[in-house]
Amino acid sequence: MDANKIIVKPLLSEKTYQDIHNKKYWFVVVKDATKTQIKKAVEELFSVDVKSVNTVVTPQKTVRRQGKIGHTQSIKKAAVTLTKDSKPIAFFDSLS
Q: Is 95 a residue whose pLDDT tops 80?
């Protein structure tokens, strides 16, 4: 799989901003990507050394709006931790 297709977008929230100082970055990834594929994609795209990758799949939830029932989208999130010797990801440096 292509590295650009594995990483969908960075995940930005209050919780993920706190992890940036510990060189831990969150991304939304495609559901069928494995931890090894995610690690290689991040290393290739950002030229960094990855220590570990943790993933979680958020299930879809039922929502009700104006009397109609629908579902939120189920997504897969990846927490990528860099090694201590690795440089930080430049995109996230401007945010912290």
A: no
